[in-house]
Amino acid sequence: MNLPNILTISRVPLMFIVVGLMYADFPYAATAAFWLFIAAALTDWLDGKIARERGEVSAFGRFMDTVIDKVMVLGLMIALVNDSANFMGHDIVAMVLLLCILCREFAVSGLRMAVAVKGQIVEADAGGKVKTFVQLNAIGWLIGARMFFHDFGFHGDDRHWVTTVRVIGMSLYALSAVLTITSGWSYFRKHGRVLFS
């Protein structure tokens, strides 16, 4: 359990805390949720950087980094779609996109396990990394919209600020769904033959 792996695993409890703060009703809970999410997202970059600099890259670290990224992203997306304040808007569209993302993530995880049985490893490619980056940005903008609405009094005439931030977040969310599907197709195109061998 070196520092990079500790940082990786820390994203799981941070995700639970962020979701808890999103549903809390005490003052500045939404702000705390936003900044804790930023800290969790930064560990995704920091753990890899430290591991490479210290020569501590391991199979465990690569595996857990991928799995925990999915757990954090999906957990926060589910919490946002289920948010009673409806900060994502367009409930049906948001849910359909979330289901597409869930299906892809489970399918690729199953592919990874099938490939692992054959003694091979499916490394995250550029498409997968870009997808995760866009997903994290989408979540950040959407949690930011909640923060502005709940903690900074952007109501009435100032509501357009919340709307603008939410629209940016939803646009990135839709883009992340597209990238999730296309990158999943790329994984199956490269490694799907293992399922039939």
User: Could you say how many structural domains there are in total?
Assistant: 1
What's the CATH class label? Mainly Alpha
Stretches with pLDDT under 50, minimum 5 residues: none
Shape: globular
Query: What fraction, in percent, of the residue positions are helical?
Result: over 70%
Q: Terminal Cα separation, in Å?
A: 36 Å
- Assign the CATH topology: Four Helix Bundle (Hemerythrin (Met), subunit A)
- What's the total number of strands? 0
Q: Secondary-structure element sequence? A: HHHHHH
Q: If classified by CATH, what would the architecture be?
A: Up-down Bundle
Q: Could you tell me the radius of gyration in angstroms?
A: 18 Å
The major pleated sheet works out as:
none
Relative strand content: under 5%
Instruction: Report the average pLDDT across residues.
Output: 85
SS class: mainly alpha
Please, could you describe this protein's structure?
- 79% of the residues lie in helices and 0% in strands.
- The chain has 6 helices and no strands.
- The protein has helices at residues 3-23, 29-54, 59-81, 91-117, 126-151, 159-191.
- The mean pLDDT is 85.
